[in-house]
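Incident log, structure service

09:12 report received: a user says their structure output differs between two submissions of the same chain.
09:20 pulled the input from the user's history:
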Amino acid sequence: MNRIHSIRSILRFAVGIVIVLVTVGSHLAQTPAQFVLRGSGNPSGPRLPDGRHLSRVVNELLTSPNDALGGPSGPRLPDGNRLNPVVNELLIVPGQPIAPQPTEIPASMPDLLRMPELLPVAAETRLEPAPTRTPVLFPEGTPEPSPGLTAAVASFLSTDIRPAAERPQPLGPQHQPAASRPTASLIPDVPPPAPVQQAACQSCGTGNIGSPSFDLMTSDPSGCYPGRFNNGVEAYPSHALGRFLYGIYNCVCLPDPCYEPKWTPLADSAFFTPTARPVTQMRFRTDLTRGLATPDRAEYFWAKGLGNTRGAQSPDGRRVDRVRDDAISMYTEAATGRVGVFTELTYHRVRPDDRPGSSGFGDLKLGTKTLLLDCELLQIAFQLQTTVPTGNTEKGLGTGHTTLEPSVILGLKLSNDSYFQAQVGEWIPLGGDTDYAGAAIQYNWSYNHVLCRPLANCPIIGTMEFRGVTFQDGAYTDPATGISLGASGNSYIGIGPGLRGFICDRADFGGAVSYGVGSAVGPRQEYRFDLRVRY
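09:34 re-ran on a clean worker, output below:
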């Protein structure tokens, strides 16, 4: 009986050591140079037959530099083999450590295997091994164990004895070694992502009449306008007027969603025609007017001359035929979004018929501008300018009455290098002479074209401008006879070229000339020079 009791004690002790080695091996595989045991300081932990705590004995064996289990008297397994060579063989086998496999603990296992004191603990209770300790716990030269026993112990060591709730969850594929990741066949098939849907037209930024890439010139009128209905056009216009009207329809009803409103040099190059888009800027301008005939016509340039003390006459009392005017003006505009306000103050030097004249500040101009329609093809704005009579009429520096000038401004993109500007407005005098003051219609247009680009954002643009004034009412003084004649139906026409250079979108400078054509009304020549700064 004593021999049976001894063999049972040795087996229990051997199983405990194997369990400890399983725990130590699993944690060595995850965090080398650390032995993990639980319950080393727990007084209620399992004890050996001699009364010592099992955990303390194992800790001493693992951390002691002496081979405590060595020698012929070491513990043996039931088949007669000593335990130490089997464990040594498992510990010194090269390659990756054996990872524990999650399996249930058989009910027939001894209660010792279920004791929580042998499970891994937190890092603060882990014991560090001796610095010079080798993985071999037992002396060399022991007999080789049988292959069957080695396989049995290896299988036992790879068993996770913890309850299922306490076992670690398997790592995801992204955290596993490449060799252990599941193959592509084990991953469920995921449908490929849908192709990227285009959210705007391919013609973005090329809206013009002349470019074939714009919808206006293609045979497909459907376009691409997210959130808007198709225009339903079945027969696309083949002639220029139809395409133009169709483009206006698209601009109003189906605007291009990827169009980005912004100021461009090509759309604001004219000298006698304002641009449709408001922009914050300051302009310094010099105007040299030569041969202005009948300046009191409808009180358009100055007040009635003869028989009226408000009007200007030559110093010797003679009637004035033509006037020479040199003017410098400062124009300031402030804009936000589609709305802008502006002021213009002018300083004149007037000389009737090249005789000594006068100089001083002229009438003050105030105005507002609102952009009504804005798309890549077309811009339409409404401008209202008011002239306040601040100039001295006796010196020929003003008209002596308030004037309203409502007008419509148009900008049309013909191609990437060509643009058309136009303005049509009414000149309405308020409070002038009842016989002389009269309304007039003003019309200006300009064709702008990029001549060259020294730099990508510094174009040099040439202009060809047409400007005209047609008087609808009023009168003027005949310089030959001195009598009043009706001004209704008289027109002034001017035409001439211009050249403007841009320094990116910050500044520009240039000049233009306008020559009077086919009539004695208005000036013979006008020379204009601009310097503009935007900020």
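09:41 both user submissions now match this output. Likely a transient worker issue. Closing.
09:42 reviewer note: Helices lie at 2-30, 54-63, 83-92, 147-157, 240-253. The CA atoms of residues 175 and 181 lie 9 Å apart.
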